[in-house]
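On to our target:
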Amino acid sequence: MSKTVELPRWIDVGALPLLNLLLALVVSGLVVLAIGENPVQVVEILLYGAFGYEEAWGYTLYYTTNFIFTGLAFAVAFHCGLFNIGAEGQAYIGGLGVTLAALYLDFLPFPIMLVVAMLAAMIFGAAWAYIPAYLQARRGSHVVITTIMFNFIASSLMVYLLVNVLRPEGSMTPESEQIAEHLRLPFIHDIAGALGIDMASSPLNLSFVYAIVISVMVWLFIWHTRWGYAIRTVGANAVAATYAGLEPGRFIIIAMMISGALSSFVALNEVMGVQHRL
């Protein structure tokens, strides 16, 4: 009879990710070598571009912010045994919610608007994730297929809205009006400057701090709440969860809606933080 051995924490958290990274570098290095380039030089260029000068750190963390939100979104669904491939579409629709709130409620002060924008993003993103979640939980449609399809539906919907509904009169560019200046998230270099710290200009904004806070909150939710435990139980064994009194379909929908809400926070970084429009 096979026996499950739990790996030491330092291997699970430290050694395995490092081994995965090294293997990825080796495999990609062989591909680079096969096309006649120097793998070491490629790695040097990558590292310099990401961390080699002061401005690069800001850009790296700015892009990282989007990956934090979408990574958390995927993680919550994965704990429930689901592969949410629809984070892109959910972020699109979350961006629609943030933009509509910012354009039509621009009379609100920034602190209130920030909360309203977060709620709008969550509602729109969760609502978009609800449809494939319902199809998985109640109709047996595979969530991988439906979430991929919904990415394309969201993209087409956004094109229609930006060309025919939200585009300012007289403009040929498929984009919305810019949100009011007082509703934009402050850049980190501006915050640092106000504190007397000299920092290179970059798109890094306050949403990065929010991403770190949300990461802690998701960890607490998954590992230290009853709902998080229920989601993990359904993901580990749906049949056993049913015998334990849990209804798998319900928690599939809950996990996917939370996942969609997390994906939608990408819009805070892009719409309110950098682009200032949809």
